[in-house]
Amino acid sequence: MSRTFRNSIRVMGFSLAVLMSPLAQSESVADVQPSPQQSHWQDLEFGVIVHFGTNTFLDREWGDGKADPKVFDPDQVNPDQWVSASRAAGARYMVLVAKHHDGFALWPTEQSNYSVKSSPWLGGKGDLVKLVSDAARKQGMEFGIYLSPWDRHEPRYADTTAYDTYYMAQMDELVTGYGPLVEWWLDGAGSAGHIYNFGKYLEELRTYQSNAMVFADVGLLEHADLRWVGQEDGHIKGENWNVIDRNGYLRWRPVEVDTPLHKLHWFWHPHDESTLKSVNELIDIWEHSVGLGGQLMLGIAPDRHGLLPQADVARLKAFGDALQARYGTPHNLALEHSATDANTKLALDGDRDTFWSAPENSHSAVLELDFDQPRHFDRVLSMEWLDAGQQIRKYAIEIWNGDHWKTVAHAEAIGHMKIDVFTAVTAQRVRLHILSSVGTARIRELQIFDVKTAVH
Description:
Elements: H1 14-20, H2 36-44, E1 46-50, H3 54-58, H4 79-89, E2 93-99, H5 128-138, E3 142-147, H6 160-177, E4 183-185, H7 198-208, E5 213-216, E6 226-228, E7 243-246, E8 249-252, E9 255-260, H8 279-287, E10 295-300, H9 310-327, H10 342-345, E11 356-357, E12 365-384, E13 392-400, E14 405-411, E15 418-437, E16 442-449, H11 451-455
Parallel strand pairs: 1-2, 1-10, 2-3, 3-4, 4-5, 5-6, 6-9, 9-10
Antiparallel strand pairs: 7-8, 11-16, 12-15, 12-16, 13-14, 13-15
Helix pairs in contact: 4-9, 6-7, 8-9
């Protein structure tokens, strides 16, 4: 799953494109705004990616493209179970690895015989992409597809032009046959030295799936909509800004963090229950991805029957329950605020479609919340309204101690979401103090939680 696009991408005429791009000439990164599709995707916050294929039956992570299609023969494939378990964890979308690096296709592609149509599963008549997309939509989850550019089976891979045609033909099958896609994954593992016509790929994708968000390494900054965080441990490091500057080329590229449910592997392996990440580890990952304004993509893996192991199902539910115990709506203390003005109330109402606004053209502001009596808490969750760009550059969470305002947390970026964690305090007044903003700051939500009390 590691990505190596840096060594494999050559973009002709890049300097000219930079000079001519209106975004490259923006006065500030604050001028760069998300597309409606990016805003929609960021609001999903948490998804899962499903790895299932010949590797599942051969106890390995990396296929060499030589596996006999006959090894793929699950007897109880149940994507409804995968979706239900994912929803229990809190996931809102599901991406299926339709073709991994071994080249084996999970739909009956007309471009190759190396697919489910050559397997004994359902007599060669199965279509896993359809089963999973149907199951996801039936339960209200959005659906996306991962189609590996690297293909270790296909002979045409050695001929870049011929392979580009092959890849786009497979892409056409997937983007025209399975309904709206929320995300298209481009994974560059193993691609060092191979040149892909990514520009042409994405022109083709946009023809049929204009709302699909494309995930890739920052090496594809010009083409992709989303970016990889740089590792697979599930953590965003440092401040999280949505706008990336690559040699003067500015783009809104929110982060997606990918990490598997099991430690160190994405596919199912026998007798590996001990590698399941604990609930505490998963909570830590969520707080350092979604809780830092990014997107969490958690890897799940059905077994050789085509079922998620019961231990995995139980862990996903326990994870979802723990999230709700910490950050569920009933635990948001801000909903119990004292009477306030109409503008402030918009950040305290639990409705992400409303927002508080600082004074127009101001560069600092205060959003204050008062309780009827002192409350005990150790978390503040803030959400910035980003349609006009990421404006806030520095802020503090402060409480009134009876004599002066005391800072309990401070940072730079808020972005889509920021959870600030601090030593538990008791206070009747708390405020978000925006110390610096490029333009008018707007806050969708200010929520307050007492996690230690909620969990214990």
